[in-house]
Amino acid sequence: MTPRPRGKTRERILDEAEALIMANGFAGTSIDAVIGAVGITKGAFFYHFKTKSDMARALVDRYQVADAAILERFLATSAKLSSDPVQRLLVFTALCVEMAEQMEDPTPGCLFGSFCYESGQFGDDVLAILDEAILSWRRAVAELVREAVAAEAPVREVDPESLADLVTVIFEGAFVVARTLREPGVFADQLRHLRTYVELLWGR
Q1: Apex 193 CA angle, 159 and 198, nearest 5
Q2: 72-116 pLDDT, tens per residue?
Q3: Whether 165 and 126 share a structural domain
Q4: Same structural domain for residues 127 and 167?
Q5: How many C-beta atoms lie closer than 10 Å to residue 162's C-beta?
Q6: What is the pLDDT of residues 55-77, one digit of tens each?
Q7: Cβ–Cβ under 8 Å, residues 29 and 20
Q8: Which domain holds residue 102?
Q9: Interacting residues of 131 by C-beta distance below 8 A, sequence separation 6+
Q10: 30 and 111, same domain (yes or no)
């Protein structure tokens, strides 16, 4: 029998842990529950993670890498598709809508949001990653907004950072409503409203 690579087991632990945490919360997810879901021994779990907190750090690290990749892809695609700053911002919002439409089931929500609700469970290292994840979107989208404002005045005055935060607010809020009401379509619907709002600001 070919031995299973260490990395594969680690990823399986993280996959199952993330699913359990999204369903039950971090405090409501025990190491035993993760072990049972993966089908491994306690020794195998502790071979990869010394504590539950170590697992939490690995989860949020992995999630942040994926989140940053989405942001970078959206920025790169927006820049590639248009040289007009207002249109770039609109393309960015359209990409958010497209991602939402392609999600088969957004109702599990966002790991960042789940961890924020239970912030007392985590150390400063995990909380710093959560902060940076939100701030990275704020910085990137605010720069898109500033460039759009400089190129063409919107019909109403806007604060770039506040408008940038609206993206995160809609993402996280839509996750909550979609999950609570068990209506997956809410997620994409709310992001379409975001795009419409930006269109109205610039009369497009």
Answers
A1: 35
A2: 999 999 999 999 999 999 999 999 999 999 987 767 889 999 999
A3: yes
A4: yes
A5: 12
A6: 999 999 999 999 999 999 999 99
A7: yes
A8: 51-201
A9: none
A10: no
